[in-house]
């Protein structure tokens, strides 16, 4: 007898059985901790606007517990399902990370950012771009609403988006836009400079690193100079450390030295 994957395999029944058993274990776990359960037979999976704010909190907590138990049991499908519903009921990635003892960035990397959240991020960046003045000396230039690179995160103390102009090249004016908890603060520097890099790999939850290159001759050769500045909050105030190019200023951040 040969067995292999086939359409008639009872996968649906298996998934449903696992889901029901997971729910039973979640309820037992929450009861043992005296955590309120959804009342009146209400379950995750219903549209959040069907519930009062208090009801959504109960469902959020239920889904967080379901997510944690699914992760612990290595039930990846059910973990992703629980994460999506927890997000619908208002859970942050920070809360999801706390539920499994990991940073929120790990949760975001493993289970991904939902499409609706990415669309919201791009809309927030586009709204910030719409407030920018044209680069100095280029009154007819239009900024592109879509970032070249970004780590926009409404839960981060500081995140950023690198934007450029329509038809731009590497030496065209760029701006690094800064956001705090998803709210736009302003461009990192008052001047729009070419050869600007957002150093995403060096940037952290509370710090954004930017590199400014002064090109040599030719421009594709070794740089004449490189400057790196780090922006972050200190005692509730936005400051920058490192080096900005000569005559480059920042109206939104003070020098931190």
TrEMBL record:
Keywords: Cell membrane, Lipoprotein, Membrane, Palmitate, Signal. It holds the Pfam family Lipoprotein_21. InterPro entries: LppP/LprE. This is LppP/LprE family lipoprotein.
